[in-house]
Amino acid sequence: MNYKTQMEAAKKGIITEAMKIVSQKEQITEDLILKRVAAGSIAIPSNINHKSLNPEGIGAGLRTKINVNLGISGDCPDYKREFEKVKMSIALKAESIMDLSNYGKTFSFREKLIDYSSAMIGTVPIYDVIGYLEKKLIDISAEDFLKVVELHAKQGVDFMTIHAGINRNTVSKFKESGRLTNIVSRGGSLLFAWMELTGNENPFYEYYDDVLDVFNKYDVTISLGDALRPGSTADSTDCGQITELIELGLLTKRAWASNVQVMVEGPGHMAINEIEANMRLQKRLCHNAPFYVLGPLVTDIAPGYDHITSAIGGAIAASSGADFLCYVTPAEHLRLPDLQDVKDGIIAAKIAAHAADIAKGIPGARDIDDRMSAARQRVDWECMYECALDPEKARNYRESVAVENESTCSMCGKMCAMRTTSAILEGRDLDI
Amino acid sequence: MNYKTQMEAAKKGIITEAMKIVSQKEQITEDLILKRVAAGSIAIPSNINHKSLNPEGIGAGLRTKINVNLGISGDCPDYKREFEKVKMSIALKAESIMDLSNYGKTFSFREKLIDYSSAMIGTVPIYDVIGYLEKKLIDISAEDFLKVVELHAKQGVDFMTIHAGINRNTVSKFKESGRLTNIVSRGGSLLFAWMELTGNENPFYEYYDDVLDVFNKYDVTISLGDALRPGSTADSTDCGQITELIELGLLTKRAWASNVQVMVEGPGHMAINEIEANMRLQKRLCHNAPFYVLGPLVTDIAPGYDHITSAIGGAIAASSGADFLCYVTPAEHLRLPDLQDVKDGIIAAKIAAHAADIAKGIPGARDIDDRMSAARQRVDWECMYECALDPEKARNYRESVAVENESTCSMCGKMCAMRTTSAILEGRDLDI
After folding, report:
1. Residue A74 at interface with chain B, using a CB cutoff of 8 Å
2. How far off is chain B from A17, nearest CA to CA, in Å?
3. Which residues are B224's β-sheet partners?
4. Closest CA to B226 of B268, B196, B262, B195
5. What is the mean pLDDT of chain A?
6. Where are the alpha helices (DSSP H) in A325-407?
7. Cβ of B176: how many Cβ atoms within 10 Å?
8. CB under 8 Å to A362, separation ≥6 — which residues?
9. Which of A278, A327, A373, A425 to mutate to test the interface with B (most CBs of B within 10 A)?
């Protein structure tokens, strides 16, 4: 092979196997995929060591993808349960899984995960640094951080969140402008603490070129983390967030110069009226790099229902340009999600992504909706279940209540509008 | 009293008790409320016979309100359960309840409801015509329809959905242009069937002035129903929908000329990219009358989760001008909602309404979010629960998993970003 990364191949005019697969999945020509991978507006995260991967593209003109977070943590170190989440995520067609493990046997869990998963795998190496190295934060060296990054890369992780944008400049602006909820990014807060405790520059910023060398070697996509993503609607689009975004735009160009694929991470909590402007700002400042958003959550007051606040923000974000949605579960802000939370989070994220794809005019996006609508018009329940995002839930709902008339449901019974209208248009008798 | 309706009072420069209450609730001067009620851009549905009402305004510059649908139906004639829904709706601060009963003792249920409810009450009289009169649809006369309208008005119903816009002109356009899902409005389909079977004009259109006389007498607000609301994303913003909307705009002016307050009902199913344009179109064609929307559902393929598809559409609609959101429950398209469905529907609608109010800059809307965010920053769980839309669910979620550290939750444990950042900024020791 005369290339190391998808981006290098694209720049050399080589259509890779991954590009071919993406082209087929997205109904977009191989040539256009190649051009966009070369320009950086599409990323195909695909570590050369992730053999079981079924590659997906993320970016301009493609279907909106979704990511599921899971992993082993100190308060809930249940390996089996976390693997159940993996299986469910793949069964529900999530395109990506981030393993956020930060406790215990992270290495072997990740190994098993990469071996099993056809979905792309992401990690946040800094979460793993403390657990894996068994050191206190202040005792960790810049080399330690890079060591864990290399370990993940070698194992086959397709993309990694690297919070390289929270450098001294960003921290100084954040401190000067002040905030209601300071730093809510877990990785960001650890790096901030490390920088303040050691007096050193952010190691991912200072040694960014070394990080890129590793990423280039294994074709890891860099997901530029937003340490200062707003943790409340009060903090969104503020000095800290935008200062960091400017840094991320500069870091994007540097990564591309090394043929490393890039995604940029985004907010967070944000009122509806700011979302579209944020999408445009990111696309401009980050040179059309794919935008990966968490939420945004459009209000702060709905713990227990943040899959919904996030679906609202995610749908608006994706229809205004975001390419990749991180799921949020009902457990957000409250506990580690259980299996049902994971399912609810995935479905809500898929709704947001799909609704955005219809709005964006992604090729074929509405076909399944039209099949569903035609089935509703025929009152064809089996076909409706088939078209449903969650066929089992739809079936259980309807069948939980006995109905007088086989063709209807208990909502309207024999006053079903579909049934009434069709009877008239088709000249059949009405029994009401 | 030298006025019959809120609108008449407003036109005469009289500030009513209801206007004073709305002014206090909304932090908007009595004078501005009066001007907008006179102009029709705010409605205060308040039947003179609804003595227990705590009035709310709907429209320009006011908080977005939400409505809960319930009622007795043939497949689930459970009076007690429906009344449990009423109690829950009021406890959860829904501003409006529509009683869609169409079976059995509708009169006495409605009587009890109006007597009990501080929330405004709406009905769709045509649902009640068949059940109450015990006649077949084809045997019902135009006078029968009006009789039921008058009965509801006298009982104290604050607003009624009247599908007066589906007249011969609208039907002819609908038939000519064709549709994937025809008519999905229950009331609209019944009127369409009646018109086709009898050959008569829509009685609510033909005898619109008689309807207005009744509404004027009791100060019932007319909610102009959208019989041709799109039942699929394929049908939205089509010839049928917009033809009817034009009729609703004309009917709005006629109602105002009779001092009858007006709301206009809207879609339905609709892709995200069409929502804002629809809001502007309604406001223009209907002369800024308050817009009452069902959904819109932004995809068709999520039965079992339509409270989420609707929250997405409702939040976008309300932030672009809609004033009043009808809740949609997870049971939509599948069965009559049970108590849990009703709760889920209410919370989802409240999220959408509140997120829109933040976006619209409604006075004080974000105060509760800022209190929540400040509590998060302090890691003050009791205050977070207090600020939550559903305190009980938030508490149960967090407390369902034991945590090592009292101040955190099982999501991040001792790696809590809030805790880490505060420790550094406040110069405390870190235990990680």
Report:
1. yes
2. 32
3. B162, B264
4. B268
5. 95
6. 339-360, 367-378, 381-387, 391-399
7. 10
8. A61, A62, A63, A64
9. A373
pLDDT at A72 over 90: no
Are A75 and B402 inside 8 Å of each other by CB? Answer: yes
b/e per residue A152-164 (b: at least 16 CB within 10 A): bbebbbbbbbbbb
Distance (Å) of CA B158 to CA B25, B45, B294: 19, 5, 19
Binary contact (A302, B188; C-beta < 8 A): no
Which pLDDT band holds residue A232 (cuts at 50, 70, 90)? Answer: very high
Structure tokens at B31: 């004078």
Contact A300 B369 (CB under 8 A): yes
For A333-386, write each residue's pLDDT tens digit. 999 999 999 999 999 999 999 999 999 999 999 999 999 999 999 999 999 999
- pLDDT (mean) for A131-142: 87
pLDDT number for residue A316: 98
Å from B181 to nearest chain A CA? 5
Calculate helix-pair angle for A306-319, B339-360, nearest 10 degrees. 50
Q: Residue A139 corresponds to which tokens in the numbers above? A: 């005792």
Q: Does A257 touch chain B (CB under 8 A)?
A: no
User: Average pLDDT of A105-118?
Assistant: 95
Task: Please say whether the beta carbons of B262 and B255 come within 8 A.
Answer: yes
Q: Which residue of B has its CA nearest to A336?
A: B411
Model pTM score: 0.97
pLDDT value, residue A401: 86
Residue B75 DSSP label: T
The whole-angstrom separation of Cα B123 and Cα B205 is 18
**For A82-93, what is each residue's pLDDT tens digit?**
999 999 999 999
Where does the pLDDT of residue A404 fall: very low under 50, low under 70, confident under 90, or very high at 90 and above? confident
- B76/A185 touch (CB, cutoff 8 Å), yes or no: no
Model pLDDT, residue A191: 96
Average pLDDT over residues A259-283: 98
> Is the Cβ–Cβ distance between A278 and A195 less than 8 Å?
no
Among residues B122, B89, B98, B95, the alpha carbon closest in space to that of B26 is found at B95
Question: Is B312 within 8 Å of A307 when comparing Cβ atoms?
Answer: no
Residue A250 sits at the chain B interface (C-beta within 8 Å): no
Provide, as residue numbers in chain A, all residues whose Cβ is less than 8 Å from the Cβ of B92: none
The two structure tokens encoding residue A110: 């990740």
- What is the rounded end-to-end Cα distance, in angstroms, of chain B? 72
Residue B75: the pLDDT is: 78
CB contact under 8 A, A231 and B373: yes
Residue ranges of chain B whose pLDDT lies below 50: none
Domains and CATH numbers, chain B: 6-360 (3.20.20.540), 367-425 (no CATH)
**Entry field: residues in chain A:** 432
pLDDT of residue B111: 97
Which of the pair, A262 or B106, is modelled with greater confidence? A262
- Give me the residues of A, 328-387, that contact B with CB < 8 A: 330-336, 347-348, 351-352, 354-356, 358-360, 366, 368-370, 372-374, 376-377, 384, 387
Considering only the beta carbons, identify the residue of A301, A360, A410 that sits closest to B388: A301
Q: How large is the average pLDDT for residues A292-306?
A: 98
Contacts of A236 in chain B (CB under 8 A): none
Residue A98's beta-bridge partner residues? A69, A122
Residues of B in contact with A271 (CB under 8 A): 355, 358-359, 366
The pLDDT value recorded for residue A126 is 93
The reply to whether residue B393 touches residue A304, judged by beta carbons under 8 angstroms, is: yes
Q: Residue A102's pLDDT is what?
A: 84
Interchain CB contacts (distance < 8 Å): A and B: 363
Count Cα neighbours of A295 within 13 Å in the Cβ-side half-sphere: 28
Residue A89 · residue A119 · CB < 8 Å: yes
